[in-house]
Amino acid sequence: MNDPRPACALTIAGSDSGGGAGIQADLRTFAAHGVHGLCAIAALTAQHTRGVTAVQVPPVAFLRAQLDACFDDFRIGAVKIGMLASVEVIACVAEALEAHRPPHVVLDPVMVATSGAKLLQDDALHALRTRLLPLASIVTPNIPEAELLLAHPVVGAARVESALAEFTDDLGARAVLLKGGHLPGDGPMLDRYWDGETVAMFGHDRLALEAHGTGCTLASAIAANLCLGMPMQQACAAATDYVHRALRMGYRPGRSALVVLDHFGAAPLRTA
Predict the structure, then answer these.
(1) Averaged pLDDT for residues 98-117
(2) Would 27 be classed as within a structural domain?
(3) For residue 223, what are the contacts with CB-CB under 8 A and spacing of at least 6?
(4) Mean pLDDT, the chain, whole residue set
(5) Which of 125, 187, 190 is nearest to 164 (CA)?
(6) 61 in any annotated domain
(7) How far does Cα 119 stand from its chain's mean position?
(8) Residue pLDDT, tens place only, 1-22
(9) Does the pLDDT value for residue 271 go beyond 70?
(10) In terms of residue numbers, what domain contains 91?
(11) Label partner for 52 (CA 20 to 30 A): which of 1, 25, 36, 231?
């Protein structure tokens, strides 16, 4: 029997009081793609375009209650995971994923905010590697995050290519999208995709700006595209295009020069 409910996207992440990243960016991204968005708040942050001033982690039992409430009622097509600050929070999310087994898990390994504020406790890195990466359909690290997860520098073309295989062969992710924004160079920015069989590169012009919420938006766009039935590689390609459009159309709502993405202005065209 066909399930008449639409495929929904669930974000498990932190709340950004400044509205540029985290849960707020995720839900706008889902909506811009025409996908119903659900959320489980794993952390509360006090932040704006100039930095993070405070972080509060809700009780783990309440996080699990949010997760179970979402899975008990909605047909979840994809889960996007963002900021998980502690070992206990990571364990809670891993246990919920193991219990409910969603079709897709998109893991954005958030460790440090754009401002430089640390968002992951020291002892949580091992838990992220061992509990969540093996459950991930795809992981979407930038270069600094990849270096922390792999425990070695990722510098030069050979190291970048070998890093892709390490995520699937050694850490257990089914696919990886390694973001290239931190790699040096004047040419196009290249994001590299690998799923154990296929390598692909998605190139876009480098933009001379500092932005907030790009990683959250990319992972959420991948999750939304998976809910819409796209295969993984196509979902990633479309998501990188969406983020680039949202950056080009971005704006500066705060006192700093930090750009916030225009999620709805960049929305992909949808047919009726």
Answers:
(1) 85
(2) yes
(3) 9, 11, 30, 78, 79, 80, 104, 106
(4) 92
(5) 190
(6) yes
(7) 14
(8) 689 999 999 999 999 999 999 9
(9) no
(10) 8-260
(11) 36
Q: How confident is the model at residue 157 (pLDDT cuts 50, 70, 90)?
A: confident
CATH number, domain at 102? 3.40.1190.20
State the total domains in the chain.
Answer: 1
Please return the burial class of 237, using the count of CB atoms within 10 Å of its CB with bins 0-12, 13-18 and 19+: buried
pLDDT greater than 90 at residue 221 = yes
**Is 3 within a domain?**
no
How far apart CA 191 and CA 214 sit, in angstroms, is 13
- CA angle (72 as vertex; 70, 77 as ends), nearest 5: 60
What pLDDT shows up at residue 115? 58
pLDDT of residue 138: 98
Beta strand 211-212 with 259-260 is parallel
Residue 32 maps to a domain = yes
